């Protein structure tokens, strides 16, 4: 075996072994789940991401859901993605700022 390849294989860790670190702005780290029945997505949220996400990725996002710590209910990932508190998505987890939503922002 080539010594340089052996060194690389020893250094690499599988993604499941390393914990996901929260960002500086993240107050919550929320798991993304695939419920048996898709959570309804508001049309306003779909319109908001129309130009950024299309096709298979959008279809997958519509089937995913998160247990929102701000709204205190299960919401579609598309709704979470368009929320002003959304920070990032890494390895099946969403970083949420956890700031209170204004009435106008929660309806979008």
Please state the average pLDDT score: 78
Number of DSSP E strands? 5
Helix content: 25-40%
**Classification by helices and strands:** alpha+beta
For the biggest β-sheet, the strand order reads: 3-2-1-5-4
> Quick one: biggest sheet?
5 strands, antiparallel
Query: Helical element count?
Result: 5
* Tertiary shape: globular
pLDDT < 50 stretches: 1-15
Topology summary:
Layout: H1 3-11, E1 28-33, H2 43-48, H3 55-63, E2 65-68, E3 73-76, H4 77-82, E4 86-90, E5 93-96, H5 103-107
Antiparallel strand pairs: 1-2, 1-5, 2-3, 4-5
What does this structure look like?
The protein has 108 residues and is of the alpha+beta class. Helix content is 32%, strand content 21%. The chain is built from five helices and five strands, in the order αβααββαββα. It has a five-stranded antiparallel sheet with strand order 3-2-1-5-4. Strand 4 (86-90) and strand 5 (93-96) form a beta hairpin. The radius of gyration is 17 Å and the shape is globular. Mean pLDDT is 78; it is low at 1-15.
